[in-house]
Amino acid sequence: MDVKKDILWRVYLCFLCIIVLGVVVLGRAFYIQRIQGSYWTSMSDSLHLKYLPINAERGSIYSEDGNLLSTSIPVYDIYIDFGAAGLREKKGKRFYDNIDSLSISLANLFNDASADDYKTQLLVAYKNEDRYFLMKRKISFEQFKQVRDFILIKEGRNKSGFIFDKRDRRVNPYVLLANRTIGLSRGDTSKNVGLERTYDSLLKGQTGQRLVRYIAGVYIPVDGAEIEPENGKDIITTLDTYIQDVAENALMKMMVRNNSLHGTCIVMETETGKIKAIANLGRRPDGSYMEDYNYGIGKKTEPGSIFKLATLLSLLEDKHVDTNTIVDCEGGSKIFHGLRIRDSHLGTGSITVKEAFARSSNVAFAKLAEQYYHNNPNQFYKHLHRLRLDTATGVDILGQATPLIKKPGGKFWGKTTLPYMAHGYEELLTPLHMLMVYNAVANNGKMMKPYLVNSIRQLGINIKSFTPQVLVEKICSNETLEKLKDCLLDVVENEHGTANSLKTDMYQFAGKTGTAVTALDNRGYNKGNKIYQSSFIGFFPADKPKYSIAVVIQNSNESRLAYGGVVSAPVFREVADKIYASNISYSPYLQADTTVDSTAYNFYGLKNDLNKILSVLNMPYMDSAVAGYWRSINMLNKKVILNAINNPSVKSTVMPRVVGLGLKDAVYMLENYGLKVTAGGRGKVIYQSLQEGMAFTKGQTINIHLN
């Protein structure tokens, strides 16, 4: 009996414990569901639903002449949700019915795997019920348009499971052209450079949001739950693609020829300060060149003899010398406070200041600066300060270097500082700093702020425009300006000028050469370690300057040429030549000779074309033929007669005459005869391999030469 009670007691106790446990569980469930329900629901949503940012379409960067310099193109990643209800309904009938055709279409489009491989891949993913299966990355917009029309995919996301994730990829259509100035746009904007970084806040637009659901380890976008981003604004630069291309090619040609380390060529519009081109090239380990750094704006060096313009301005403005003042160059070598300064050409004696500038005498300018500013170096420094050589250029791009101009009385000022500064040493300046000074001389003393951006544009409408800004209204007196221009012109026009070999009869340009000794790998200026920086800065046309150009090239110890007159000046001349040739408005139109020309001329062409040309020129003519489309012109003493020639509309096996025709007309005529044409040269046809009157067969090849 006691045993029975003992067993019952234990059973009742266990039953009671179960009841208590059940009450506790139910109570806890009620508490979680009713009291903490909102908290756990929000936590669940935060784990399975969240907003991810959608980057806006980045704005584009344009040249002043309307060409795209940097833009974004859409690329797409293709994912498949094999758990989509429409794809799995009726035991996957829709999927299995279309998989063969879909696999063939994908294989034909991407051409990277066979249709069987695509089918196997899709079947495995379907059986595994992958919710966010990556099908393809970075397909182009053209491929995207084709894919979305494929069988099954065109039925929509719910039935096909296909998800297209759009992204933007940044491209520079002109690749190398002004690449460093335009800059690069990376995912991490802190690593951007150039205009892409400077104007990043405007280019990137306003970020949107996309609601995504976390399923099976991946986030899947939720349809209809997006906050659209606001696209970025466009930047319209001052760059001109033609001038930029000319500058880059001319710089590249010289640097490859001379095996130089790096260089820059900057073209500035004289009147406004607009930078029309800025080429920056650096040599890579494999010997090729690319835009690896903005040397024109971010690299400061000792400028060399191009700095003599600032010294000459100071001397003339303070009335210490005139251009015809005689200075003794002492044979091209002189010791200043224990250090020797030499000219590149020894033996020069007493010459005028103007000729010393043309010959680029270091001794002459060191002597003059020491003579007139030794007891008052602050006066010399005031001129440099007025020329803003101790101030950042203010150009509208990040990465500009801060110049270094020593101040009298400072801890870096020594006895040799003044004579060395006078001819371009013991100061650190960027090419853009020196270009601003030369441009101010060309612009009648008005120093303009250099700038790279014309306007900010949104949806094709300018929302902000930038106009030319004057930094210094007058850098010196008009009298000094005229003398400076005359000296700069003498560098080119004088038979002893350092750029005389580049003089041209087409137009006049003015400027100054510079050759600075620089240390190799910071090992000093000792013999064997020194290399040369070659420079030329000037403007053209000299009488009414339109553009100022700076060319600064850092040579290597393997470079064959060193002086600015043979390294940088030819680059200036090539750029100036091509800009000048592209704009005939620089020079007045030539007046036609009114004398009667007794020479007989013969031309060939289509009747309608010739009639139109003669009518525009107001030249009376007589057409001796009635039928046919082709005519020859005979002109003598202003009398014009048109004669009929070959008629390709008439079926013939006799070779026509094409000598004298332009390429377009010659090819048109010969192809109408059924001939295959190969051509070489330019101008008018001077030779045809199948002679006039010869028999030929249709499909035969004829070679023509033009000159």
Explain what this protein looks like in three dimensions:
By secondary structure, this protein is of the alpha+beta class. It folds into three domains: 136 residues, no CATH class; 343 residues, DD-peptidase/beta-lactamase superfamily (Beta-lactamase, 3-Layer(aba) Sandwich), CATH 3.40.710.10; 106 residues, Trypsin Inhibitor V, Chain A. The chain contains 21 helices and 31 strands. The strands form nine sheets. Strands 2, 3, 4, 5, 8, 19 and 20 form a seven-stranded mixed β-sheet that branches. α13 crosses α18. The longest helix is centred in the first third of the chain and has 34 residues. The protein is flat, with a radius of gyration of 39 Å. The termini are far apart. About 1% of the residues have low confidence.
What key phrases describe this protein's structure?
707 residues, alpha+beta, Beta-lactamase, 3 domains, 7-stranded mixed sheet
Distance between the termini: 133 Å
Tell me, briefly, the overall form: flat
Roughly what fraction of the amino acids lie in strands? 25-35%
DSSP helical segment count: 21
The CATH homologous superfamily of the largest domain is named DD-peptidase/beta-lactamase superfamily
Helix content: 25-40%
